[in-house]
Every structure is written in structure tokens, then in C-alpha cells.
TrEMBL record:
Keywords: ATP-binding, Coiled coil, Nucleotide-binding, Plant defense, Repeat. PANTHER family: NB-ARC DOMAIN DISEASE RESISTANCE PROTEIN (PTHR36766:SF61), PLANT BROAD-SPECTRUM MILDEW RESISTANCE PROTEIN RPW8 (PTHR36766). InterPro entries: Apaf_helical (IPR042197), LRR_dom_sf (IPR032675), LRR_R13L4/SHOC2-like (IPR055414), NB-ARC (IPR002182), P-loop_NTPase (IPR027417), RX-like_CC (IPR038005), Rx_N (IPR041118), WH-like_DNA-bd_sf (IPR036388). This is Rx N-terminal domain-containing protein. Residues 9-95 form the Disease resistance N-terminal domain. Residues 209-295 form the NB-ARC domain. One of its GO terms (molecular function) is ADP binding. Residues 513-644 form the Disease resistance R13L4/SHOC-2-like LRR domain. GO terms for biological process: defense response; response to other organism. It comes from the Eukaryota.
């Protein structure tokens, strides 16, 4: 991901000039190193646009950018040390000021001395490394006059092309109808369709057996048409089980199966698959016009239509390519140069498995979007992610750049997400308020993996060929990987910032190793884990920003050490159904912005959640015993969103809730005993 160094360097320079420097001032001899780092990085920043454009052709340039990127990350880690120290001081001071019986506050001078000595040494090493990187820069004859070629996002009010507005496919439609109305022996008709739009809603809350019984009863002795949309993976055993489940339907029932995977047809099909060919040139142009212009507006831009036809011809009839480039150019109808840039891009000539049109769309993204998009390669193909998780993952990794107009990071993250959606890099799947669910087309996902290069790794089954440069890694099924292989894999890594462990019995072993080894960990995703105790050593992860235990039905207690995580911004305890209570010192999580709670408590203690003054989102769900919240809720002056769901014993809300002036959204559902004051 060396082509996005500029998006790392910009925020890094801001950090070097920010309040972090106040902590640096306390370390003797470091101020000079900090100034030299800042000055040389500013010089390098001026020529980055030229370097990033040349790297596609020059291997030496790509390697230099890669070294610069690694250096920037290492500087960021050191600055994080200073920030963590400042937060530690703040938490200690706050704790001292709130003690009922105040004792004499004594600064830990020995600890301070050791910290200052260690940090001074690290800063000097960084300065020497940058001297070498800067010297290499002079060999490339880079220009500061090259501007980044970025196409700005289209306006948010544009109406997306409706999936029901099918373009072309007349012959295929006729073939499907003929297959549906033809008489047969009562078997299922399977039709393979490669390009797919959309996906049905999941019924996650229903037990599988209940769903099966409902379905069997619903279709028995009826002639039915079933549509299985976008089937990605199925075994012969799965298919036989489903076929038996539907055995009670009447003769003449049909099943349409759509997929991008050719092997699905051989498993499920009873007739030859119908393979969709590429769109015709005419249909491709119609799709492009629908995405690039408002209805009828193309008539006002005959010169752009000529260029658009040439762009469409290079897409080879691929609907995703046409749609992506059309969406990209929507906002540039007054800039012929950008249309010509897309048409004449050298990317069309590159021999690669990634569609050139998708790569062009990526290259024309603003640098801040590139990093956010590449980070999404950490998800599995076809994975559904929601807006809240994704935005908090971006924030936790420093991918959201604060603006000068005091916008909340969550609001900026929402704009990033909508921009990627508008560029057709994300597909909207469903809404389950307050969550919006998205996923990436498989070709888009491959592009994300390609541009992330060695920085992100998603280990499906085997932990092989992981680069030592990897910073973000996920293990969707850790229990399927032998422990010795996992140990060997993780032993090669030292720069990890994100660990995703999901649904695996090897979680405890992996977790212990990750905590002990990766001290700069920012994201720890443990969804669907099954351990009943979180190691107390988690308190040593002083840079951790994101911790999710969502869906752990076994954990009963959180260690007190979790309250030492002063950098923690998102804590997700949703559907931790056996969690007995929140830690007593939760008030020490002074940076917390998002808190999602499921607990067996009857009420929350005072001077707990109410002290989390950085909190923006508070979600309280499935708390079966909860009778009351906390009376000091009015102290949450930054709270924007509050959701209370499935709390059947909750009887009332605290009076202070009406004083939450920043609150934008209060959502209450399935709280049957809750009584609201009539005059409120």
C-alpha cells in the first residue's frame, strides 16, 4: 500500500505539531529531534505526488515509498507512546481528584526517568533513519510541481440506479421464463447466473430448527418458485439437506439459483447453467449514462458522450466496470480533462488479474479513501460489515482525518463510507436500525487485497506466506489451524495493529500470544469467542482503541485491568449474555466513544458510565434484569446516540436524560415495562 504514503504522512505531520509535542517537551533533548523529523518530512511531502505516480513503472521508487511508509508507521508508534503517557497522567490526576479521602499525590519519578530515557533513544534512532531515507530521495529527481490526480466525490443526493432497472438481458430473460413454464418431472430447475445484484435479508435471530419447520409447513403440497440469490459456497451435503427439506412441494415447483461460482451449478443443477455473457456495447452505454448523468442530462454534454463511448468500449461489457467508472465521473461533467484522463490511463495496458477500470477508479480516489478501502480487505469475501463497526475500525487505526470545521470523527467516517458506496465500491445489503450492512463485490474485494499488498492478511485456513510487514491480520477460523502453525506465523510478526479472531476454540491460546507479543495493538476483534475469562494481561495493551467481545455467551466477568486501557475508544459487549457486571472502575476509560452493553446487572452503579464524558454512542441491549440506568447520565455531554433495546424490566429513565443537549437520536424498543412521564 505504498501508493498511499501521502495519506499517512499528512496526519503524521499534524501529530508532530499537536498537543503530543507537549509531552515531548518533558523529555530532555528530544525537542531538537522532533523539529528535524518534522522539517524533513515536510520536504518529502512536497514531492510525494510525483513519487506515487512514478511507482507503477519504477521498482526502485516503489521500494523507497515502502520504506518511507514503514518509517511513518514507526514514528506514529513512538508518538502513540507519548500520547499514552499523557492519558496515563490524566487518568491518575482524575482518580486523585475524585478520591473521597485524598492522599498526597506523588509523581513516580523513577518511572518518568526510565520513560524519558527510552523515548529519547527512540527519537534519535528515528532521526538517523530519516536521514538515510531523505538522502535516497535526492537520487530520484522528484518534482514538487506534480499535483495529485483526484476526482472529487459526487454529491450525496444522487439517486442510485435501482437494481430493478435491468439493462439488456432480454434473451436471458426469455430463456429463464421458458425454463420456468416448461413441464418436467417435478425436479428443481437450477439456473446459474454469474453477475448478481443484491442479497436477501438474514434471519439471524431465528433458530435453525424453527426456520426449517416454518418453511416445511409453508410450502407443503404447494407449487412453489424458490429463488436462491447469490449462492457463494455450498457442499453436496448442504444441498441434499435442503432438497429433502423441500420434498413436500407439489410437482412443477422450481428453484432458481444465482451465483458467481461455476462449481455451484455442478452441485445443485438439474439443467445446464445459463451463463450471462458480457453486456452489449449498446447496453453498456445505457448503463454508463444512467450512472454518469442524471436522467436526460447526457444530451447537454455531447463532447463527454464521445469520450464516454470510448471508455465504455474499453470496459469490454463488464457491468461492474461500466457502473464503477460511470459513478466515478458523475460529479465531473464540467471537467473534460478528468474524462480524458480515465480514457487515456495507462492502466488499460497493464496485464493484471484486476479489472483496469477498477484500478483506475481506485487510483482516482483521494488518498484518505484509499487507506480506508484497502483496510476492508481484512474481511472475508462476501462478508457483511456494518457502518458502526467499520467506522470505528477506521477511527481506531487513525484512518479518519479530522477536518477544520469541528466535525465529529464518526460523521467524517460516515461521509467516507457513503463516498465509497457512491463510487460502487460497497454494495448496500440491508438495514437493521441503527446499523446499515454492506459488502463488497468479489472483484472489488480482490482489488482491495491487491492494493493492500502485504500490509493486511486474511488467513482462511492456513497461516502461510505471511509477510513480516503485515500490520492487520484476521483469523476467521483459528480452530482449523494447528497451534504450532499459528505460533510460527505470529512469531514472524512484530508490527501488528489489528487482530481479528472469530468463532474459534483456539481463541484463548491465540489471545494470550497476541497480548504478550503485539504491544502496539489497536484493534482486538473477538466476536463469537467462547472463553469465559479475559486475561488480566489485556491491561498492558495501552494503545488498544477497539475491543469487541460481541456474541460471547460464556464470559462472566471482565478483569479489572481492562480499566487501564485509557486509549480505548470502542468497547463492544453486545450479546455477552452471561456477563454479570461491568468493571467497577469503568470510569477510567476516559477515551471511550462507543459502548455497547449486554449484562445481567439490575442497575448500573453511580460514578461509572456517567463519568465517560467522551462517549458518543451508548447501546444497551438484551439486559434481561436491568431495572434502572444511572442517575448521573446528564454528565454525558458529548453523547449523540442512545439505543435501549430488549430490556423488559427497565421501568424508567433517569431525569437527567432531558439535559443531554448533544443527543440526536434516542431509540427505545421492546422495553415493555418502561413508563415515560406524560409531560416529557
Amino acid at each position: 500500500m505504498s501508493e498511499v504514503v501521502s495519506s499517512i504522512l499528512g496526519p503524521l505531520l499534524e501529530k508532530l505539531a499537536s498537543s503530543t509535542v507537549e509531552e515531548i517537551q518533558l523529555v530532555g533533548g528530544v525537542k531538537d529531534d522532533q523539529e528535524k523529523l518534522k522539517n524533513k518530512l515536510e520536504m518529502i511531502e512536497k514531492v510525494l505526488a510525483d513519487a506515487e505516480q512514478k511507482q507503477t513503472k519504477e521498482e526502485a521508487m516503489r521500494l523507497w515509498l515502502s520504506r518511507l511508509k514503514d518509517f511513518c508507521y514507526d514514528v506514529e508508534d513512538v508518538l502513540d507512546e507519548f500520547e499514552a503517557r499523557a492519558l496515563w497522567r490524566q487518568a491518575r490526576l482524575t482518580e486523585y481528584l475524585t478520591l473521597k479521602s485524598k492522599v498526597h499525590y506523588q509523581a513516580p519519578w523513577l518511572s518518568n526517568f526510565i520513560f524519558q530515557f527510552k523515548m529519547a533513544h527512540k527519537m534519535k534512532k528515528l532521526r538517523k533513519r530519516l536521514d538515510g531515507i531523505n538522502e535516497e530521495r535526492t537520487q530520484f529527481n522528484l518534482s514538487s510541481d506534480v499535483a495529485n490526480k483526484i476526482i472529487v466525490p459526487r454529491r450525496e443526493t444522487h439517486s442510485f440506479v435501482s437494481p430493478s432497472n435491468v439493462i439488456g438481458r432480454i434473451n436471458e430473460t426469455k430463456s429463464i421464463i421458458e425454463l420456468l413454464i416448461s413441464s418436467d418431472d417435478g425436479g428443481a430447475t437450477t439456473i446459474e447466473i454469474i453477475p448478481i445484484i443484491g442479497m436477501g435479508e438474514k434471519c439471524d435471530s431465528w433458530a435453525l430448527e424453527m426456520l426449517q419447520n416454518q418453511l416445511r409447513h409453508l410450502v407443503e403440497d404447494k407449487r412453489c418458485l424458490f429463488v436462491m440469490d447469490d449462492v457463494w459456497e455450498v457442499t453436496r451435503e448442504d444441498w441434499v439437506g435442503l432438497r429433502d427439506l423441500l420434498g413436500g412441494v407439489s410437482e412443477g415447483s422450481k428453484i432458481i439459483v444465482t451465483s458467481r461460482n461455476q462449481s455451484i451449478a455442478s452441485i445443485m443443477g438439474t439443467v445446464p447453467p445459463l451463463n450471462l455473457a458480457n453486456l452489449s456495447r449498446e447496453d453498456s452505454l445505457i448503463l454508463f449514462v444512467n450512472c454518469a448523468f442524471d436522467q436526460g442530462q447526457e444530451k447537454n454534454y455531447p463532447d463527454l458522450m464521445v469520450i464516454g463511448e470510448e471508455i465504455v468500449s474499453k470496459c469490454g461489457g463488464n457491468p461492474l466496470a461500466v457502473k464503477t467508472l460511470g459513478s466515478l465521473l458523475f460529479s465531473k461533467k464540467n471537467n473534460r480533462t478528468d474524462w480524458e484522463y480515465v480514457r487515456d490511463s495507462e492502466m488499460w495496458q497493464l496485464e493484471t488479474d484486476i479489472l483496469p477500470s477498477l484500478r483506475i477508479s481506485y487510483d482516482l480516489m483521494p488518498s484518505y479513501l484509499k487507506r480506508c478501502f484497502a483496510y476492508c480487505s481484512i474481511f472475508l469475501k462476501n462478508y457483511e460489515f456494518n457502518n458502526l463497526d467499520l467506522i470505528q475500525l477506521w477511527i481506531s487505526n487513525g484512518l479518519i482525518q479530522s477536518s477544520g470545521n469541528n466535525k465529529e470523527l464518526e460523521e467524517i467516517g460516515r461521509q467516507y463510507l457513503e463516498e465509497l458506496w457512491s463510487r460502487s465500491f460497497f454494495d448496500f445489503v440491508r438495514e437493521d436500525y441503527p446499523f446499515l450492512f454492506f459488502r463488497m463485490h468479489d472483484l472489488i474485494h480482490e482489488l482491495a487485497i491487491s492494493v493492500a499488498q502485504t500490509e493486511l492478511s486474511n488467513m482462511k485456513v492456513h497461516a502461510q506466506d505471511i509477510s513480516p510487514e503485515t500490520r492487520h491480520i484476521s483469523f476467521p477460523n483459528p480452530s482449523r489451524i494447528p497451534k504450532d502453525e499459528l505460533h510460527g506465523c505470529l512469531s514472524k510478526l512484530s508490527r501488528i495493529r489489528t487482530i481479528m479472531l472469530e468463532d474459534g476454540s483456539s481463541g484463548e491460546f491465540l489471545l494470550e500470544m497476541c497480548i504478550s507479543r503485539f504491544k502496539h495493538l489497536r484493534v482486538l476483534w473477538l466476536d463469537y469467542s467462547s472463553f469465559d475469562l479475559l486475561p488480566s494481561s489485556i491491561g498492558s495493551l495501552k494503545h488498544l482503541r477497539f475491543l469487541s467481545l460481541w456474541g460471547n455467551w460464556d464470559i462472566k466477568k471482565l478483569p479489572d485491568s481492562i480499566c487501564k486501557l485509557h486509549n480505548l475508544q470502542c468497547l463492544d459487549l453486545g450479546l455477552c449474555m452471561e456477563l454479570e457486571e461491568l468493571p467497577a472502575d469503568i470510569k477510567n476509560l476516559i477515551s471511550l466513544r462507543v459502548l455497547y452493553i449486554t449484562t445481567k446487572q439490575q442497575r448500573f452503579p453511580e460514578r461509572g458510565i456517567g463519568c465517560l464524558t467522551s462517549l458518543r454512542w451508548l447501546l444497551i441491549a438484551s439486559c434481561e434484569n436491568l431495572e434502572a440506568l444511572f442517575d448521573d447520565i446528564q454528565l454525558l455531554t458529548s453523547l449523540r446516540k442512545m439505543f435501549i433495546v430488549h430490556c423488559p424490566k427497565l421501568a424508567s429513565l433517569p431525569q437527567g436524560i432531558k439535559n443531554l443537549n448533544a443527543l440526536e437520536d434516542l431509540w427505545i424498543r421492546y422495553c415493555r415495562n418502561l413508563k415515560l412521564p406524560e409531560d416529557e
